[in-house]
C-alpha cells in the first residue's frame, strides 16, 4: 500500500464524516461501519477491505486505536460479503409446471365418482331415521 493511497482513503473518510457532522478521529466503530456500508453500494468487497485497512492504519497513527477491527465493522463486512455472494448465484431454474397447468382460483374441481346431491335429496337424508341395532343374545 502506498502512502498516497492511504492518504486518499483517509481524506475520503474525513470528507464523508464532515458531510455528516461525525467525528473522524477518533472515530466510533459504528461510524466506520456506516462508511463501509455506503462504500458497499459502489465498490467491490476487496476494494472496501483495502480502503478499510488503510483507514485503520491512518487512525492508528493518529490515536493508537484501530476501529476497523471492531465486531460491528466485521459484521458489516460480512453482510456485504453475503450480499455479493448472492449476486454470484446462478439464476433459479425454471419451474416444473407452467401457470396454465393449474386451475384458476374460482374454477370448481371436476366431480369424481358420484353425482352431486340435490337440495331435496339432502333434506330427505336428514329425515331418515337410522335403523335400530339389536345386541346379540338379548
Describe the protein's architecture and organization.
By secondary structure, the protein is mainly α. The chain has a domain at about 5-90: Tyrosine recombinase, N-terminal domain (DNA polymerase, domain 1), CATH 1.10.150. The chain is about 55% helix and about 0% strand. It is built from five helices and no strands. Helix 1 packs across helix 3 (about 45-65) and helix 2 runs parallel beside helix 4. About 15% of the residues are buried.
Quick tags:
138 residues; DNA polymerase, domain 1; mainly alpha; single chain; 5 helices
What is the number of E strands?
0
Question: Residue ranges: pLDDT <50 for 5 or more in a row?
Answer: none
Q: Give the fraction of residues assigned to helices.
A: 40-55%
Oligomer: single chain
CATH class of the domain at 3-88: Mainly Alpha
Beta-strand share of residues: under 5%
How is this fold's topology laid out?
Elements: H1 3-19, H2 29-39, H3 45-63, H4 71-88, H5 119-127
Helix pairs in contact: 1-3, 2-4
Amino acid at each position: 500500500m502506498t502512502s498516497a493511497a492511504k492518504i486518499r482513503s483517509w481524506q475520503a473518510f474525513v470528507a464523508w464524516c464532515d458531510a455528516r457532522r461525525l467525528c473522524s478521529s477518533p472515530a466510533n466503530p459504528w461510524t466506520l461501519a456506516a462508511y463501509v456500508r455506503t462504500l458497499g453500494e459502489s465498490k467491490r468487497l476487496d476494494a472496501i477491505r483495502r480502503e478499510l485497512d488503510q483507514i485503520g492504519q491512518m487512525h492508528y497513527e493518529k490515536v493508537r486505536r484501530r476501529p476497523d477491527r471492531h465486531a460491528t465493522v466485521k459484521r458489516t463486512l460480512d453482510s456485504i460479503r453475503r450480499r455479493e455472494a448472492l449476486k454470484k448465484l446462478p439464476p433459479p431454474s425454471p419451474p416444473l409446471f407452467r401457470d396454465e397447468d393449474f386451475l384458476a382460483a374460482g374454477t370448481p374441481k371436476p366431480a369424481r365418482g358420484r353425482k352431486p346431491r340435490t337440495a331435496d335429496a339432502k333434506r330427505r337424508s336428514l329425515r331418515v331415521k337410522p335403523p335400530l341395532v339389536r345386541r346379540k343374545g338379548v
